[in-house]
Amino acid sequence: MSLSTDKKLHFDNDYMAGAHPEVMRRLAETNLECTIGYGLDDYSEEARNLIRTACDAPNALVQFLVGGTQTNATVIDALLRRHEGVLSADSGHINVHESGAVEHSGHKVLVLPTRNGKVSADDVENYLRTFYQDDTYEHMVAPGILYITQPTELGTLYSLAELEALSACCHAHNIPLYLDGARLCYALGSPAADFTLPDIARLCDVFYIGGTKCGAMFGEAVVAPNPERLPHFFPLVKQHGALLAKGRLQGVQFATLFSHHLYEQIGKEAVALALQLRAAFEERGYIVAVNSPTNQQFFTLPNAVVDALLEVATFEYWGPRGETESTVRFVTSWSTLPEDVDKLIFALSQLSH
Amino acid sequence: MSLSTDKKLHFDNDYMAGAHPEVMRRLAETNLECTIGYGLDDYSEEARNLIRTACDAPNALVQFLVGGTQTNATVIDALLRRHEGVLSADSGHINVHESGAVEHSGHKVLVLPTRNGKVSADDVENYLRTFYQDDTYEHMVAPGILYITQPTELGTLYSLAELEALSACCHAHNIPLYLDGARLCYALGSPAADFTLPDIARLCDVFYIGGTKCGAMFGEAVVAPNPERLPHFFPLVKQHGALLAKGRLQGVQFATLFSHHLYEQIGKEAVALALQLRAAFEERGYIVAVNSPTNQQFFTLPNAVVDALLEVATFEYWGPRGETESTVRFVTSWSTLPEDVDKLIFALSQLSH
Amino acid sequence: MSLSTDKKLHFDNDYMAGAHPEVMRRLAETNLECTIGYGLDDYSEEARNLIRTACDAPNALVQFLVGGTQTNATVIDALLRRHEGVLSADSGHINVHESGAVEHSGHKVLVLPTRNGKVSADDVENYLRTFYQDDTYEHMVAPGILYITQPTELGTLYSLAELEALSACCHAHNIPLYLDGARLCYALGSPAADFTLPDIARLCDVFYIGGTKCGAMFGEAVVAPNPERLPHFFPLVKQHGALLAKGRLQGVQFATLFSHHLYEQIGKEAVALALQLRAAFEERGYIVAVNSPTNQQFFTLPNAVVDALLEVATFEYWGPRGETESTVRFVTSWSTLPEDVDKLIFALSQLSH
Amino acid sequence: MSLSTDKKLHFDNDYMAGAHPEVMRRLAETNLECTIGYGLDDYSEEARNLIRTACDAPNALVQFLVGGTQTNATVIDALLRRHEGVLSADSGHINVHESGAVEHSGHKVLVLPTRNGKVSADDVENYLRTFYQDDTYEHMVAPGILYITQPTELGTLYSLAELEALSACCHAHNIPLYLDGARLCYALGSPAADFTLPDIARLCDVFYIGGTKCGAMFGEAVVAPNPERLPHFFPLVKQHGALLAKGRLQGVQFATLFSHHLYEQIGKEAVALALQLRAAFEERGYIVAVNSPTNQQFFTLPNAVVDALLEVATFEYWGPRGETESTVRFVTSWSTLPEDVDKLIFALSQLSH
Predict the structure, then answer these.
(1) What is the pLDDT of residues D40-71, one digit of tens each?
(2) Distance, CA of C63 to CA of C220 (rounded, Å)
(3) DSSP letter at C175?
(4) Model pLDDT for residues A289-334, shown as the tens digit of each residue
(5) Between chain A and chain C, how many beta carbons pairs sit less than 8 Å apart?
(6) Which helix (H) or strand (E) holds A121?
(7) Which domains does chain B have, with CATH numbers?
(8) Which of C85, C98, C104 sits opposite B100 (nearest CB)?
(9) How many CB atoms lie within 10 A of CB A316?
């Protein structure tokens, strides 16, 4: 993790700044209003309705939580029966970077192999089919849901066809499909996206629309197009410590993000900057480590180039520093300015290759 | 819960508005800055240092979480060994209004009787002493910590002598004392308070300084004067879904609250308004249901009075509505205006008793 | 707990000896047979069928577990949804003497007042009705099942009418009724019993037929007359560490207990001895502390009498020893010999009162 | 799982029969004695002392539990702090065949690659070293203990040197080493064993001596040579539903197994028969699938051979049946008769290869 944050360009991650200025403006405007708590206020209801409309899911349960790890742990706990576990890419956030939050609630993460950060419907199908062929399956943790992220940890995207296949496979085996959309705006805003938010709502049983990394100060919106998928979700959210007293804060934020297409626009602009950055690296012959069409870009660079860029920008190593070259990640977000990208490209252009 | 929030005076609770204007101002000012996440930024460090100073606890571990239920569940989970439970007033928030968050982490709440919302050192001593006299105590849940709230759910305060006694009793039996300070500013700001923040830091093993109800937009600051009381707390906070990505948001807020004595001032002003309200009710011969010196006031009123006041203000029934009279609660906070209290008193004065 | 076990009469509890001789004989006879594990063998199937017949519940799920605490924790975990807790008498075994096993699985025990060790349908009805009238009920642990014991911890019995009322109340509120039958043979064998095993199967959603205290070496048989009440119970039993590899051991034992009315007979004989003992104490004017019609008898005796009887027998204090008199418990079981009771009564008769 | 158990030879597993005849004899002899419960009786104390002596660990905590899954879940829960997980071979029993019992207690299983069913000290060292080099390690589950089995799931053995290396590695990183000895007698009884029980007690922080598969009717003996490694273990055993009321049953059994070298002898005889079987297969040119020196033997056989042998014996497929050949497992135990092995070899010799 890069510690220097002074006067440099920042490409470490997509949660370095506060809230999108429009979101901040609305929080300030409504600050002194008094509303009832726990999401029962009008702003929250407005936000829920805007999300239902954007998802083309008029009956959807929409519940706001605070952060991603807590959202994953709560939803997975809600969807699984006690003897079940959650299928996930081995590189999935819940399997690696959530300090065992899923296991804290009593459930095992069942790992699937990944290619480009994605699991395949074939691998899921194979897991589900062979599981019940094993004579001892009742001594094993039953696969109870499939967890995927869109975009993935590597910034890659499931295509519509891939989502359709995963959804079909899950439903053929009667297990819910849950999509972690921590960075969903950057999926929807990618030129490579051949799916829409209504597609996701149609194919997934539960998903969440990320706020924290997508323009909100904080907050995630869990959506269950069919609310019967998440019965008694409210007390479970409370039990998981995920219920904000001042629920209207999330209402105000999501209502802003889902007005005037702000959520989409945030994604589009940030992805465009990321792809501009990628083009600049590619053009100069650097290795693109992952073929990512979203706001995370991964390059394998000579250490000298890494060191030179670290003079002007902060960004993360992706894995340990190598002996002669290292893979690094650059992330854009709503808070990335076009001139930041220009400056970084300029710095790159100054380097002898 | 009162649903009308339009154009009325609001005394429902202390989390109806957003953030104290000064806190909001600082959030807006710093909004576009980029910092590293998870509380490793300079604002968070500044806030931790200000809190250490205010507590006269220079080595304290200070960790920010988001909300009260999650803070209680996480701290209690950190302090207890697996075979232990937490002693609490039967009316304690963790025993009643947290949807079983403590049990979700595997621990039992062991209830103590209360008087005026408080547990007595005698009752704790008695519990701890007789527990180990029972031949079958190894088949029972061992009392592992004592949980208290200051002020209590009823707005009452433990005096310094009572805190000293509880602390001495806990330490004689080698169990930590944990204080829930969700409304701590309204304790410290009470004219009845004969203790200081350093007293609390001296007597408690762990406590939290409430932000959500005390001027912050959200956030609670856990303090362990001796950091060895909370080893490996950071990953546990993450595991509980209680770690905010944009940790600096809490840093900015607590740094503001602990500069220029704002935290104290918020408490003092709100309590003064609450006591003014109480005096008005008392003066007119209404029954004060709880002798509370803080920002929550409880009155038992004829239903006609309740109904008349509900025309101009929102507030909560405390328990079910009675046949002829009901107990109700009025809460002030940093967002209560002196003129709100004046208007309510005026409305009261218009009623024939 | 009485430590002396040498050459004395033993009335401490009902798990001091091994297995009923008939059970032991069958275990020895079948010892070298090889069968498949985990209860899939023919003995287990035979036992399940005998139990189904005895319960007049031909479709019942019958699953064998090893001990009582584990059975309660597993069944309760199976029946509750994550946001729910279990209603229980405050004196219930799960609330006091199971080291927090229910909480270890994430659930709260919600306590009800008791009279004579029993909860009343009125109290249950009142709890369930008022719970949902509370505006904040979604912040509280929802009552998900009712747990009762038959006989109770005090040896008392729910009458058929009381069971009918509890069952009706539970089902009106759509929550399962679960009956802990750790000592069920001593309920069924009481002259005061106005209910049968089929009554219990008709009125309870799940119950267990105790083996450990009722003639088996170990083992408890969980019965769900409607197996849909316990879906996926087998892997949950495994997950709770409650699945015996050599499942046929429980099969052999329960098949023996449920052949030739042995289970009933064990109960009847032990209760008859207990009541004979009680008559002897009553006759001599001693205080019967609990009006128990089963194998546990409680007397409040002068300490001199207690001390004199401790010369010839072992038994337990029920609560702390008093200054001049103490309450003690005498327990009979299948292993109590008529001559043991005679000897104790003789010893009693020798005392000057 | 082979279902036929009638008149055939049985090599399915090592828990098909009841108890070793000597164990059964002692259970029958002591059956009507009355003792106090929960392992506080003299038989249990005798067994604990015999085990301490056999382990050359005079101060060891020895606690009896009922079965393997429950023992693993309880010990692991006792050893881990809340933010930690358990390192295990990916093929480890806790990771595959315990229905998520470890996760039910809130802990993640962290998998290591295996060779011949074993983990290497190098892989453990590498895991532990690189874990703390990752900047984000506080967001990941910390490795808290190492879990190994001896013999492994594949019947292979860690040599003394391998155990020394694993122990040294664990202790250098300050994490306990826990050994699952479900089949420990078959490790100790192997001609390939270059370690002793005192070696295991010297190198492991906690281990368990399997009873269920090694001559007992049921029961496992947890040993912590330094009892401070398992503080408050008794209530945790109770909480996990693993405390047998009639604790003396385990005392009687383990006292028998650890008298007259019965435990050793059981292992030696069963392993000798297994190796005799292996020699017969090898001699005839069949493929030995695993180089196992213990009571489990794995062969890859033409399906015709498998089918022919299934006519006379029961045994398990190891993985799915192949198209032309399949891997199968033969297991011997204390209940395997020399003539059973002779008969199987005779059957094998009748087959044309």
Answers:
(1) 999 999 999 999 999 999 999 999 999 999 99
(2) 8
(3) -
(4) 999 999 999 999 999 999 999 999 999 999 999 999 999 999 999 9
(5) 43
(6) helix A121-131
(7) 9-16+263-350 (3.90.1150.10), 21-259 (3.40.640.10)
(8) C85
(9) 18
